[in-house]
Specification:
The chain has 11 helices and 14 strands. It has 372 residues and is an alpha/beta fold. It folds into 2 domains: 61 residues, no CATH class; 284 residues, Ribonuclease Z/Hydroxyacylglutathione hydrolase-like (Metallo-beta-lactamase, Chain A, 4-Layer Sandwich). A hairpin with a 2-residue loop joins strand 2 and strand 3. It is globular, with a radius of gyration of 20 Å.
């Protein structure tokens, strides 16, 4: 560890919490090493180590907790009435939504594979102990799991969680193929334009894009290269990114994991917008996304360092720039900017004039055969 600190000192880099990516980007030119990685070298540039070295060095220098943003963190008090939609942050882009004994999970990921295993193409696998710990605070009954895309930090743990929760998966065709290769027998493959009704939830599937990293989407393929189960981070391909618009209790929640200005959210007002903000692309599209969604509450997502275990507590990822998110939110909308801490539920307040969600008797949940 001392080498890391001496490198920073030699470069004249000072520890500056929450520093934006542009302030540490010079490290790329200093540590632009190309190391052969025989198990993960492919067209999606996973052989190029500068990205991972950047994360290592800038993460050491700039990682920080909520700090001066602690006043934005919201959670239920003991007096909060639990008759609304409860939102629980699970880390990375993972969430649980609860309403009157029903629950949905989105992108649940608890294993938190370490950086070096990803960087050097090692075999990765779900951590059963961490998954058990992560599931302990969750609802006993889960209606479904929604997954935005197939990267390991969104899909790796899903097969085990499905088995433990006895629930179904709603995801893209490529993500369904990945979990089947990992041992899951079935899943509901959806595409933009599809609608699913499960208990009280109405779920609209929407198109999305994935942020680029140094000009390219990581592991950007629609088919896995090998025929067997996914074993390395590069096997968990992006596939077809999705977003979801969830209607429940007369409220609308929009969620994605990030994106580019090429694909904006729908032009529809929502109560809560959960927008991935891990990389620069998603921050560029933020003002336009807010203009279209006009959310009452904005919750930036995928901003924590997902290579660290959840037990370390929330720390901003090295490529995030929350200061910019805060400025853009203040300048582009009247949305209230909020943050959530791990496993601290928050109940979405009811709107002053909520729009009732009319039931559709033709589309009640009757298992997979009742969906359209």
């Amino acid at each position: 560890m001392e080498k890391f600190f001496s490198f920073r000192a030699a470069l004249g880099v000072r520890a500056r919490p929450r520093a934006p990516f542009r302030q540490s980007s010079h490290l790329v030119s200093v540590f632009h090493w190309h190391v052969p990685l025989p198990h993960s070298c492919n067209a999606d540039y996973s052989c190029q180590v500068p990205f991972f070295l950047l994360l290592i060095f800038s993460g050491q220098a700039f990682g920080a907790g909520f700090g001066s943003y602690a006043d934005l963190v919201v959670s239920d008090s003991p007096a909060t009435r639990h008759n609304g939609v409860r939102v629980t942050y699970l880390g990375t882009n993972g969430y649980q939504f609860e309403f009157k004994g029903h629950a949905l999970l989105v992108d649940p990921y608890f294993s938190r594979v370490d950086l070096l295993s990803v960087a050097f193409g090692s075999r990765i696998q779900p951590d059963s102990s961490r998954i058990a710990d992560g599931m302990r605070p969750l609802a006993s009954k889960v209606d479904a799991i929604l997954v935005t895309h197939g990267h390991f930090d969104h899909l790796l743990d899903v097969p085990i969680i499905m088995s433990k929760a006895h629930t179904r998966l709603i995801a893209s065709r490529s993500s369904i193929d990945l979990v089947k290769r990992a041992g899951v027998s079935s899943g509901d493959a959806v595409a933009p334009g599809h609608i699913r009704r499960i208990g009280p939830w109405k779920i609209r599937v929407l198109p999305a894009t994935h942020d680029r990293l140094f000009g390219k989407v990581p592991f950007d393929r629609h088919e896995q290269g090998s025929a067997g189960p996914p074993q390395r981070a590069s096997d968990w391909i992006c596939g077809e990114p999705l977003a979801f618009l969830i209607e429940i209790n007369g409220q609308r929640i929009y969620i994605d994991s990030g994106g580019t200005p090429a694909q904006l959210p729908p032009n529809q007002k929502v109560d809560l917008a959960i927008l991935g903000m891990a990389l620069p692309d998603s921050r560029v599209r933020l003002p336009a996304a807010l203009d279209r969604l006009q959310p009452r509450y904005l919750l930036p997502s995928h901003e924590d360092d997902f290579f660290l275990p959840l037990s370390d507590g929330f720390q901003f990822g090295p490529l995030t720039d929350f200061a910019r998110v805060q400025r853009d939110c203040a300048g582009a909308s009247r949305s209230r900017l909020i943050l959530l801490d791990y496993f601290r539920p928050w109940t979405l307040p009811a709107a002053v004039n909520p729009k009732p969600q009319a039931p559709d008797p033709k589309n009640r949940d009757r298992g997979l055969h009742g969906w359209h």
